[in-house]
Amino acid sequence: DLGPARTPTHPVATAPVNGPLFSVDGFVKEFIHELNTAQGVALARSSVNDQYLALARTVKNYLMARWLDTNRKTREAKVKTVGYLSAEYLLGRQLGNALLASDLNEIADKGLELCGLDLVTLRNQEVEPGLGNGGLGRLAACFIDSLATMNVPCIGYGIRYEYGIFRQTFVDGRQVEQPDTWLALGSPWEFPHPDASVQVNFGGHTEKYRDADGKERTHWLPDWNVLGVPYNYMVPGYLNGRVNTLRLWSAQATKAFDLPTFNAGDYAQAVRAQTFAENISKVLYPEDSTPQGKELRLQQQYFFVACSLRDFIDNELEDDFDLHHLDERIILQLNDTHPVIAVPELMRILMDEKGFDWDEAWAVTTKCFAYTCHTLLPEALEVWPTELLGRLLPRHLEIIYAINEQLLEEVREAYPGDELRARRMSIIAEFPERGVRMAYLATYAATKVNGVAALHSQLLRDKVLPDFSEMWPDRFTNVTNGVTPRRFVKMANPKLSELISDTIGGGWVTDLERLRELEPFADDPDFRAQFAAAKDWNKRRLAEVLRKRDGIDLPDGHLLDVMVKRLHEYKRQSLKLLHVVSLYEQVISGKLPVDQLTPRTVVFGAKAAPGYKMAKDTIHLINRVAATVSADPRLEGRLKVAFPANYNVTLAEKLIPAADLSEQISLAGMEASGTGNMKFALNGALTIGTDDGANVEIRELVGDKHFFLFGMNEPQVAELGAKGYNPESYYEDNPQLKAALDLVLSGHFSGGDQHLFDAVVYNLLNSDRFMALADFQSYVDAQARVEERYADTDAWTRSAVLNVARSGFFSSDRSMREYIQRIWHTQPMM
Length: 830
Ligand code: 6GP
Known about the structure:
- It comes from Raineyella antarctica.
- By secondary structure, this protein is of the alpha/beta class.
- Helix content is about 50%, strand content about 15%.
- The radius of gyration is 28 Å and the shape is globular.
């Protein structure tokens, strides 16, 4: 403890912080200073990595003054802050976005040129922080970008994983995971504040005692603890001077090592505690949409949530703040169930530490949380065994039991005699083992519960939480997801952005509905030509990236058909693959003259959870089909399949702007929303998709004529399921489908091995939980319509322009506006 700060007497000490001068000269000075003093090298002897780090720090220095200023103003204004609690943030590279937000692109470009350096090369040196799996983590990153841009106070809270999502490589076509060493070459964007570290307790037991007033109270006596060290990241708003905070926690041992053991010579034992503690933030769990019920995962969840609540209460609020009014200063948004342990944690703080009664604590807690659900898969809803939860967090389990008692009392009062209902709604599951249903806990405690697209929110109410929505209908709402137009249009698609700005002005970047003004230009041949030219430029840029990055050659003049997302059976990459195999089979068997094949390149990008066998087998099969099809001279180069490894945000930014066709083909009722679907539409790809997630809203907005709908809708899926689904009948009845599956079974893609892909094929034939075979014919028919439209270049481009013009709704700024108005009740700052 350094004691209280002294009152400064020097005028400079109290003046606002100034960043480097906003000029090419100021930039160069700062850059060289960083290179010399932080990197410790002269320009002439510096490596590209030195230069990148110095550049990143230079840009950070510009933002720093604004960050300090934002913090000061927010604190002074004592306004309500959004505390976004998320176990994942899939940020993507930081440099490009920081340059854009601070309007430094031109200055940096010129300044680096004066130093004999090239901005693009330095930008490519950045390793993206992959601190998330997929949609849920990327959504969090888009949301905090939008809040900063809209001038809304927000702190994103999460975990600083030392290893993010694994790096995917292919060995003989099979996925092999490599550790993601994103910190290895330096981490210029973060700044740790070890002095603001927080202690987090685990284990032990609880004891009752009587306080001074004779009231019974509880005391938690934990038996181990770790330290949470905050690492701050700046979240700059677009050209508005606001810089919000992303605060990620890193776990450290409270004691570096056990000195007596160390002195006794058992060095390994002496540091064991340290290793154990640091494991908590070591690695991101690579499961997407399906939880891993592992103890370390629960440790991670409690760790970051406990750090965040403590941090906000102790460091962001005034010392004398009355916590009865906590909801006037923060709304804690629970990004799925991962942070839901924050609910009993806040109850514990208020009761055990601040002396609140139960009812007082509950009244505050229920005003401070809102919950977003991101899934419909029943197996994706987290349930923590009470045995584990009680061992790790005994006090929290007690509180959860008490919350549940209160819930059941309310239910019994509302529905007397309906014991079955009470049992259904219990937060405590009794089967297959005693466990805590985190989604129920969140729903009971939250002011609002939302799904992430209209259809999803409807199904959430009707199928996942029907009893809760019946009892508290007003608690449920929908906020359809969105994506940030800064990163995914302005930055990722510079040519299209320029064309849009030249046509309707630059306001669309923060007011995306203005893309509507492009509608009339869909009929302007000149505009269409420029639009198509931008698409071509994006394709050439992608070709260069894929050649360098993956050794993949992208043929000219092909329809670029892209399916990028996590590998999951419900997303149905296998359906896309069956279409490819079928086209190929028809050509090599002579049923389809090769010159009638629309030249097409199909690009897949997908990581599979390391333990998800079916997903990994599917990756293997895609790679084998890719190799076979691309190499077969009978196709005359008219069909190609490419599967670049390690799909991530960085690749998405190149791939999405180049795409013609966006594949959004999940079984209806399974994809909560999707956000890739929005990015494609905004970049002028046409969608082939089912009536699922946000596809429904995309289709409604862009119009049926400009969207290729296929497959069963959700009620039809439910009906077929109820009737009894028999995938084999589709195989028997559809010669085209049969021929495709038979070709796989023949060993054609596996060097004659007729059993290599048995698991994938027989899963489709015998079970096919996600009904790919049922939707096959409809999908193939829709693809024929795609080809017909594509053959008419003008018609295709017209549809593409209309997709852009009508997709402004899918800005994450709009999503944030809806959260603010209906859920958070916060105010932007002026
Ligand atoms: C995903 C959903 O699968 C996706 O449809 C949605 O767009 C995204 O969340 C953002 O809302 N869900 C997850 O990634 C997940 O882990 C538990 O859900």
